[in-house]
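[job 4471] stage=fold_predict status=RUNNING
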Amino acid sequence: MRQALLVDRICLNRRQPQHSGTLCMPTLSGSLRLYRVTDPKRFDNRRHPLDLEPHTEWANRFQAQTLPPERTAAFG
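[job 4471] inference complete, writing structure tokens
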């Protein structure tokens, strides 16, 4: 898991799509959305060997989550 986070963070810093789908970005409304992913149709296949759950399961836990306005203001 840590390797996936590190690789995705490096991709984010280089403004490239992430590989494992571990990073989300806040929207102006306060919800979270997945940062761009390399080959989205197959990225769950990359998550499995890293012991990451399928993205749909992971995303369902965060679907209703919102950030407080003071947290999203910095991203507007």
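[job 4471] summary: The beta strands are 24-26, 32-34.
[job 4471] exit 0
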